[in-house]
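One-letter codes give the sequence; the fold follows as tokens. Both lines appear below.
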Amino acid sequence: MRNKLLFENKRDHIVHVINAAFMDLDMCTEEFAFTDAPHQSHYTSSPNTIQAIFPQETELYCVADASWKASTKKIGIGWSLHSKKGTLKIQGSVALTPTNSELEAEAIAMKSAVQQLNRLAYTNVLMLGDCAELFRCID
């Protein structure tokens, strides 16, 4: 994703990036299992889709993300709501005034997604994002 953004100025949807990361993890797990223990005929592999790690009761999930370059430049935020099977239901995005940090931009993206889903009367939505620091702050 980083190379595509830097060299082609194209951005993949976050769901595709996460699914690709899980597939890469699964391939690495297979390789290490084969290299480290060739005598074993089976092993536990990682999930190969993002949906495989969801709690069983999850019916909807929302991915929120922000783009932040500097405290003097506008931020871009976006979110998308999906069914458990990955079908896109709705999405939104907007450019906003600059923020002081990437963490603040990510928090605004998550807040915006939650507010929009609340206005549209969606409930019990699993929220996802790519900012571990934000999730540590709200945990």
User: Anything to note?
Assistant: Residues 1-53 form one domain. Residues 39-43 have pLDDT under 50 and may be disordered. The longest helix spans residues 14-36.
